[in-house]
Each structure stands twice: as C-alpha cells, then as structure tokens.
Amino acid sequence: MLVIPLVLLISLSGSVFPAEVVVKAADMSDNSAGDPFKEVWNLWTNGFIGEVFDFPENGVYKFTVIARGTKAFDIWPEMKVLCNETVLFSSPVASSRLQEFQFTAKIEKGICKIKIQFTNDGFDEKKKEDRNLYIERLKIEDNGSGLLPRIVPKEEAEPDLKVKKELLMKKLKEQTEKIRKGGLEITVLGKDGGIIKNAGIAVDQLRHEFWFGTAITSGVNTFDESTREKFLKILKENFNSAVHENALKWYGTEKEKGQFTYGDADKILAWCEENNISMRGHCIFWEVEEVLQPWIKKLNKEELREAVLKRAKELPERYKGRISEYDVNNEMMHGSFYKNRLGEGIWKEMFQTVQKSDPEAVLYVNDYDIMKNETLEEQYAAHIRHLIDLGAPVGGIGIQGHFNGALNPFLVAKSLEVLSKFNLPIKITEFDINSGNERVKAEGLETLYRICFAYPRVNGILMWGFWEGAHWRPKSALFKKDFTPTSAANMYRKLVYEEWWTKAKGQTDDKGKYSCRPYFGEHLVTVTTSNGKIFSKKVSLASAEKNKNITISTDF
C-alpha cells in the first residue's frame, strides 16, 4: 500500500471531515510495553499500541491523536504514528496535559496497520523523573465521502496468522502429550498372590504435579464469614498452589522499622498447609524505589546493608521447609534502589544469604513485560546471565504475565524458547488479563496456558488473584463480585479439570495388567473385580520418573 504523509494541520480551512471513527487507546488490539492508567494508556520502554484498519477508498484522511507526556532530563517523549511501518507523523509530546495532535495522510484503499510508537524512553535516576508517553485515543475522519475505515480482526488482516496459530496449537498439544504424561502399568494380584484377570480399573486424577495457582490477598483474613467461606471454597476447588499477594513483602511484614507483623502471612500459609496447597514466597526484596517504606529510604549505606542482610537471613529461616521457593529481588530490570545505594554486589549477597538460610529453597528472579515485548526476553536473558556471572545462585526464572488485551502467542512462545536455554525451572508468576471483554480474557487464558503447559521447563502458572472483590485489576478476575464464574473461569476449568485431568478406564489383561498414560501427579486407582469387590489405592507419578510399574495386592 502506498502511504503519502502530509504536513501537520495547523488550520483546516476549506477541508471538511464530517464522519469519524474513534478508538480508545486502552481498547486497541495490539500493544507491547504499557498499561492502562486512569483515562489513558501509559507507554513505557519504547512501547507501542496499534489497531488494524481497512480503508474503503483512496483518499486523504485526517488523524487526531490525543496524548500527553512526562519529561526526563528536560526532554519530552517523542511520538511516531505509522501505517504499515511507514511513518505518517512524528512529534514531541511537550505537555503534561492531554493535547490533540492532528495531521493528514493520503491512504490507499486496503489494510493499514496503525501503530502509535514511543521512541525515546528515559529515566533520570537523580531527579526520579520518568519519561513516558500517555495516549488517550485515536480519531480518524474521512474526506467528506462518509466512508470510514473499518477495524479489522488480526486474523483477517493477516490471513496466514490464523493458519500459523492453528499449527502452533497443534504442535503444542502434541508436546503436551509427550512431556506432561507418563506411562503407568498396573498389575493386580489377589490375596493369594495370583493375578486377577478382567478386573475393572479406573485411574482418576487427584492433583497435578504442575502448579496451577493463584495469589492470595491479605484481605482474606478480614473478610466477613460468608465472603471468606465462598472465597476459600473457590480457592480450594481450583488451585493446588498459591503465593502471598502482599503479606510477605517487606512493607507487609515490617511497615515501621523493628515492628514485625507476620500475622497475615502466617495465617495464609497455615490455611494452605491444612489444605495441601503448595506456597511460594513473594518477595523478599523489591528493587523499585517507589514501593519501599520511607524508613528504608532514610537509612545510610551501612544501616541499609545491615537491614537487607538481616531480612535475607531471617525470613527464609522463619519459613524453612514450609515455603519451597522465593522471588529474591523483584523487578531488577525495572528498578535499581539497592544497586544504586549499595553497589551491584548486593544482588549476589541477597541470593547467597537466602540460600545459606534455606539451602533447599529455589531462588527465582522475577520481572514483567517479558512475554509481550519484541526484545525484552533477550534483555531478561542477558540480565539473568549477568546475575549468574556475579555469583548469584539463581535457581529459577519468574515471568510475570500482566496483559491488557489479546495475547500474541508467538511472542509468548518465543520468550519461553529463549529462557528455556538456561535449563532452569520457569514459572509464570503473576498472570492476568485486564480487559472487560470476556471473550478476549477467555481466549487469552487458553492461549497462555496451552503454550506454557507445553514447554518442559515451565513448572507452573500462578494468576495474580481470581475474585473481582479483591483483585488489583478487577476486570482481570475469573470470578465476579458475586462469585459467579466468567468465561475465563470456565475456560480454566475446562483445561485443568477436563482436558488435562486423567480419567482412564479399562480392564486387566490375561496377565493381570492394565496400562495407561496419566498426567503427572497424584491419582486414585480403583480396582473392581467381576464379583463386585472394590479396592482403591493412591498412586503418584512424577515427571522425574516418566514411567512407573506398580503392583496392587488386594485383600480378596
């Protein structure tokens, strides 16, 4: 398609644009780094947002982008608007208040992928100024014909995209069958030691080895009795693992210096232990200065180092043998407080001190935007390699998964390909999709879970909350405020408790044997003889075993 950019419109005298199509930035179908922020979309890390349009005719169209910015180093953010990677317009956004940026461009009939790009990200560490671009909406007006461009679904805009996605999903299903199941051979013997032929066998899954988890809000400890009962019932019925949302963070355990409050964290952990729900620890430290308690920021260098090493020692000691893994220092790619104050070596000391306090715990890095940015997974890989080179005992890779719309399955898969090369366990630590479109949420959940479940290095997915009444991004919740399930909740149940849930049935052969391929985890094997006698036994099959032969000796 030929695209001819025209000049920025200062005056539109003589031009008439009677019809328009308006798309809010938060509703655009394509985005990289960024997040909804109040009435706008906050672009960072040189991110972009975009939408695909089908223009009905050749002609001149008027474009209006409503945007504002924040500056760093006295430089405002730069914005580019592109159609099919051809620049239509570029300008600094030199205002902290929303402004209209207007231009016209000659567009040929057909598909135009509009992208609004942030190009000069920057952060002034000294002044704590963060250069960001905020987009409120895009408006396109016609040239008087009344014919407006139509928003086009991605599959229609890229005809081979649907085929590529179908091929990817087929490959993922094949991989899942190979890596998430093992061989189980059951031999049934009678009380006298003789084989039992033609006995009915049922293998029913009780629990997955793979972590299907959620964050748990501290609010659970203060809910009224009815709300708490409903919340915990859903938690227990849907998840086999969990993480403290905020209760274990430093501000959750020591808001004021020397005043320790582990009550919320302890209560959540105790309930999870009572209900056979595994827990991970999030997080011992958080590298982002904005979230730290004021008293920490006031410490001098020696006092800060002492406080850091004290927490790195005492928290893992407190939960030794109860919490199996930790995010040691959250979001090191997006913050630098401890590094700036104490030097880069403090990162290594954090990991080494935690490891010394609990040698069995797996120590994770954890960061965001990895699965929705074209290059960030490579930067994350370089960051992890650097930590390892420093001597930090990194034992696992945490990938946050906070999305705001439709997922790009190819970016998700690419990130896992890159990070799997470390041969370390990978967890999706904080998954949600902040969209009011239930179809987008359900399809996005299915896409992410299918991809991650098919990669052998991925050992779990934890969503960052599940109930609208206690969710940091309420639109992301699987269950509404009245606890009714959304389409995404139904999709989650369909995958985890139907498609990926072993329910095998058959009979023993002439040698008293029965074989099947269950998903790794715990199962109940039930034997029913021809005369109606029933015998049951719990059996576990771990991925480390791959295959297992068991003998069930009945008492009849």
Give your account of this protein's structure:
With 556 residues, this protein is α/β, with parallel strands linked by helices. Among the domains are: 155 residues, Galactose-binding domain-like (Jelly Rolls), CATH 2.60.120; 120 residues, TIM Barrel (Alpha-Beta Barrel). The chain is built from 13 helices and 29 strands. Strands 1, 2, 4, 5, 7, 10, 12 and 13 form an 8-stranded antiparallel sheet that branches. Strand 21, helix 10 and strand 22 form a beta-alpha-beta unit. Helix 10 packs parallel to helix 11. The longest helix has 21 residues. The radius of gyration is 27 Å and the shape is globular.
Give the low-pLDDT segments. 1-17
Major sheet attributes: 8 strands, antiparallel
Distance between the termini: 78 Å
What is the total tally of β strands?
29
CATH topology of the domain at 3-157: Jelly Rolls
How would you name the CATH homologous superfamily of the domain at 3-157? Answer: Galactose-binding domain-like
Helical coverage, percent range: 25-40%
| Percentage of residues in DSSP E strands | 25-35%
Overall CATH class of the domain at 3-157: Mainly Beta
Principal-axes geometry comes out as globular
Could you say which structural class the secondary elements and strand pairing correspond to? alpha/beta
What is the averaged pLDDT score?
A: 92
What is the rounded Rg?
27 Å
**Count of alpha/pi helices:** 13
Query: What CATH architecture of the domain at 3-157 do you see?
Result: Sandwich
